[in-house]
Amino acid sequence: MDAKLGDSSIDVSHASITENTEPAGGIKALWREKHVMSLALFSNLGGFLYGCVFSGILVMSNFERNFPPITTDSVTMKGLVSSNSWSSEKFGRKQSISLACAFAILGAALQTGARNPAFFYVGRFFTGVGVGALSVGVPLYNTEISPSRIRGGLGSLFQLSVELGTFVAFWIDFGCNYIGGTAEGQTEAAWRIPMAIQLIPALILAVGILFVPESPRWLISRNRDEAARRALVSLRQRPEDSKEVQMEYLQILGEHKFQQELGALEKGSESDGFISSAWNQWTYLFRSAANRKRVLVGVALMFFQCWNGMNGILFYAPTIFQGLGLSGTTVSLLATGVVGAVMLIATLPTVLFLDQKPVLIFGALAMGVCHALIAGLSGKYEDSWESHKAAGWVACVFVWIFSALFAMSLGPVTWVITAGVKEWRIAGSSSWLNAFAVSMATPPMLESLKFGTYIFFGAWCFVAAAFCVFIPETAGRSLEDMDAAFGDTSRTSEQDQERMNRINHEIGYDKYQDTKF
């Protein structure tokens, strides 16, 4: 069975059931599962909301007159809260997403109506709590409802939704900047409208997510087996007695029983409680060198996804473009909008066609080159942009190229490879904690290091490329192949495989193991 992005209750790294399916990805596979695709598109309103980083308001004249400089976006809170998946485990994937939307709605409402900085900061906090939780909950839900053959594509779909949100937010900022004029006559509506627009996707998702099927994996983890079977029937749009539904149901059930037995062995007694199960899932990650390697790959890739400089550009793009010599709020907002457009376009083909490792290596190298060129131009002309406007525009073009490279490589492909190594719980937390650090570090770096900021991020891009040379290729591998790729020849793996085979026989799964769909 292909590795699952976000499987928080059924990670069985060494011993699993082989799922025989058609080749992963592609338009045909997505079309065959169009019902799941439609559910994923809807739930990815959470990704759209996450991407609605309205950094453009920070340079609007009316906003600057009413509020002191705000150096970080709401993402500064995303890293603090998104690592906590407690509500998702306790209340279910749907309810946790709806709860996250409620926080985002409260935050957007407070920001929209803010009359002083205190209210705005409080609203920023609640929005960060909401979108931070969505950044974990939405990919987790999409992965757990998806067949393995389209799991990678749906993993990239979350990134596409983020890019779409970024694209829309940038251009809304640009249009609203003209409300009342772009200077002294600009009205409060110029920045209040972008803030209020966040309410729309949050409200739709908060209510609508309650009417979609729950994750079968979560239902089985809560011993609601019949509800899980009904959810699978709804998700796959096939009869309950179909072999595909029966096979997948027994597959999930077997993995859950496997985890229970591991817990009983480690604790010396039956362990099916929530706390014991969660403890087993975490300790299992470090039981062998191969598992530790999986954790390293997942965490490192998420680190590189954040520390390549893209987050800093997204959060502070208008400020960055002004620093590269583009005078005037309108011009910097226009340049920022182009970032959103090129990222959206560059992400589209990645959803369907992923070569993973080669794409990562090429993308990271090219991004490092872009940083080096931007640093060179900035270092030479940062004190004389007014007389070298062409150089400023060239630097902006390299920012756009850099953004496109990220959107087709480290952006979406990182999620897919992380799905292959199965350490989403740790890697996901690493991602948002690093996003928090980047959002805090970028403004002072731009102020003190100036062009050195691009050298710093560029260096990490080259390190990322070198690291990716040594990671195993995960595309198209079964978990058995993944064990070999990560060097797992331990006795623990053999014992786990024997245990899993016994469970498969007990629940009647073994009669389906040669079935292909």
Automatic annotation (TrEMBL):
List where in the cell it is found.
Membrane
Q: Which GO terms describe its molecular function?
A: carbohydrate:proton symporter activity
InterPro entries (alphabetical): MFS_dom, MFS_sugar_transport-like, MFS_Sugar_Transporters, MFS_trans_sf, Sugar/inositol_transpt, Sugar_transporter_CS
In the UniProt record, which is one GO cellular component term? membrane
According to the entry, every stretch annotated as the Major facilitator superfamily (MFS) profile domain falls at 1-476
Asked if the keyword Transmembrane belongs to this entry, the reply reads yes
Q: Which family does it belong to?
A: Belongs to the major facilitator superfamily. Sugar transporter (TC 2.A.1.1) family.
A Pfam match? Sugar_tr
> Per its UniProt entry, which superkingdom is the organism in?
Eukaryota
Q: What is its main location?
A: membrane
The membrane-topology field of this record reads: Multi-pass membrane protein
Instruction: From the record, give the transmembrane residue ranges.
Output: 39-60, 120-141, 153-172, 192-212, 295-317, 329-352, 359-378, 390-417, 454-472
Which catalysed reactions does the entry list for this protein?
myo-inositol(out) + H(+)(out) = myo-inositol(in) + H(+)(in)
Q: Keyword Transmembrane, does the record have it?
A: yes
Which PANTHER family does the entry mention? PLASTIDIC GLUCOSE TRANSPORTER 4
This chain belongs to the protein called General substrate transporter
- Give the UniProt keywords, A-Z: Membrane, Transmembrane, Transmembrane helix, Transport
Q: Which Gene3D superfamilies match?
A: MFS general substrate transporter like domains (1.20.1250.20)
